Amino acid sequence: DGGITQSPKYLFRKEGQNVTLSCEQNLNHDAMYWYRQDPGQGLRLIYYSQIVNDFQKGDIAEGYSVSREKKESFPLTVTSAQKNPTAFYLCASTDRGLHQPQHFGDGTRLSIL
Amino acid sequence: EDQVTQSPEALRLQEGESSSLNCSYTVSGLRGLFWYRQDPGKGPEFLFTLYSAGEEKEKERLKATLTKKESFLHITAPKPEDSATYLCAVQAGSGNTGKLIFGQGTTLQVKP
Predict the structure, then answer these.
(1) A103 touching B, CB under 8 A?
(2) A47: left (phi over 0), alpha (psi -120 to 50) or beta
(3) Which residue of A has its CA nearest to B103?
(4) Which residue from B minimizes the CA distance to A10?
(5) Average pLDDT over chain B, rounded to whole?
(6) Which listed residue, of A73, B62, B83, B96, carries a Cα 20 to 30 Å from B72's Cα?
(7) Beta pairing partners, A110
(8) What is the pLDDT of residue A99?
């Protein structure tokens, strides 16, 4: 079955620590996205990538970094510079072409210890 | 600034009581409007894409419609399993980045 796999499901970060969230897709999609979801708020775009070895900042990129070395993988690092990292993080991917919907993984919930 | 607003924030219905959720948008050059369903602790699940004013899409008890300023998600005779948060998102502007602007969602609770 094709889909998007995010891991881990739950993650805890200590002060001053960087943590990396994994996102893997086997849908052969070109574009991938990272969103942050806070209670009562819509999804906010952190970073996106339309092709391997290229990515762009979204609306709230500060304190985050990404890489896109393989088409299937788009890991997100939450750095110590992100002072309020507690949130639900969602990864999505989409095919090229007009009006293609984004498909989502089941998220990683990050909390501060 | 492109903006998407959903109302109401929360909606409680009795089983079988039909209603509508609203998604209003102000964007430059709408390319598509998307509806998603999200269950607690899960990622959003794609429901519908609408491209142009006047368009309608249906799936079981759900029907989505689109005008030039807003979209409605009509829920006919809902069941408790329809309880979820419903998200609206728009794709707008020139360029084909696939970027979406999301509303804050409507949380629907259907009581038996």
Answers:
(1) yes
(2) beta
(3) A42
(4) B41
(5) 94
(6) B96
(7) A11, A87
(8) 79
What pLDDT does A112 receive?
A: 87
How far does CA B16 lie from the centroid of its chain?
20
Q: Are A89 and A13 in contact (CB under 8 A)?
A: no
pLDDT tens profile B49-87? 998 999 999 999 999 999 999 999 999 999 999 999 999
Put simply, the answer to whether A101 touches B49 (Cβ < 8 Å) is yes
Question: What residues of chain B lie within 8 A of the CB of A43, using their CB?
Answer: 44, 87, 89, 100, 102
Q: Which residues of chain B lie closer than 8 angstroms to A40, CB-CB?
A: 9, 104
Best of A25, A43, A48, A109 to mutate (most B CBs within 10 Å, chain B):
A43
| pLDDT for residue B92 | 84
In angstroms, the CA A44 to CA A85 distance is 13
Q: Look up residue A69 and give its two tokens.
A: 């070395």
For each of chain A's 113 residues, which pLDDT tens digit applies?
Answer: 679 999 999 999 888 899 999 999 999 999 999 999 998 888 999 999 999 999 999 999 999 999 999 999 999 999 999 989 999 999 999 987 777 899 999 999 999 88
CA distance A108 to A6: 7
**Token representation of residue A90:** 């969602």
Asked whether the beta carbons of A108 and A7 are under 8 A apart, the reply is: yes
- Which residues of B lie inside 8 Å of A (Cβ-Cβ)? 4, 9, 31-32, 34, 36, 41-46, 49, 51, 87, 89, 91, 96-105
Please check whether residue B25 is in contact with residue B3, taking contact to mean a CB–CB distance below 8 angstroms.
yes
